């Protein structure tokens, strides 16, 4: 195993095999993993919100699904990833807090983040091959650039690879 590269909230990074990308504390946030199995170039974004166009102070492009996934994609292509080979996996998007006024569907930010992430991946033509989203618990993820495996860890739950 190579170096472990941490990705913070509203952050993204790429690496090559044998390095590992990790991000902690995915509650309503989404971790988007992009992977090219031929070059073993990997990317991980930790997005917090679905849509940069809805926010006035949106200078941090990694914070949003629409701009963060685009930047991750662009960085990976620049690094030599093959756009036709890229695949995606996502995790997070939990409903962390029950709000009494949020009983109507579609008000859950985690769900909106997941929907926006899927839509952006589809727009870029990147197949979403696995996901672990929703429910009400946080996740920590690790993306292994050697294999493309995406490890999901949650307190009190079995670790799993997707």
TrEMBL record:
Query: What Enzyme Commission number(s) apply to this enzyme?
Result: 3.5.1.44
Top-rank taxon? Bacteria
Record-linked InterPro entries: CheD-like_sf (IPR038592), Chemorcpt_Glu_NH3ase_CheD (IPR005659), Cytotoxic_necrot_fac-like_cat (IPR011324)
Q: Which SUPFAM superfamilies match?
A: CNF1/YfiH-like putative cysteine hydrolases
Q: Which reaction does it catalyse?
A: L-glutaminyl-[protein] + H2O = L-glutamyl-[protein] + NH4(+)
This protein's record includes keyword tRNA-binding: no
State if Isomerase is listed as a keyword. no
Q: Which UniProt keywords apply?
A: Chemotaxis, Hydrolase
Its annotated function is as follows: Probably deamidates glutamine residues to glutamate on methyl-accepting chemotaxis receptors (MCPs), playing an important role in chemotaxis.
**What's this protein's family per the entry?**
Belongs to the CheD family.
Name of this chain's protein: Probable chemoreceptor glutamine deamidase CheD
Gene that this sequence comes from: cheD
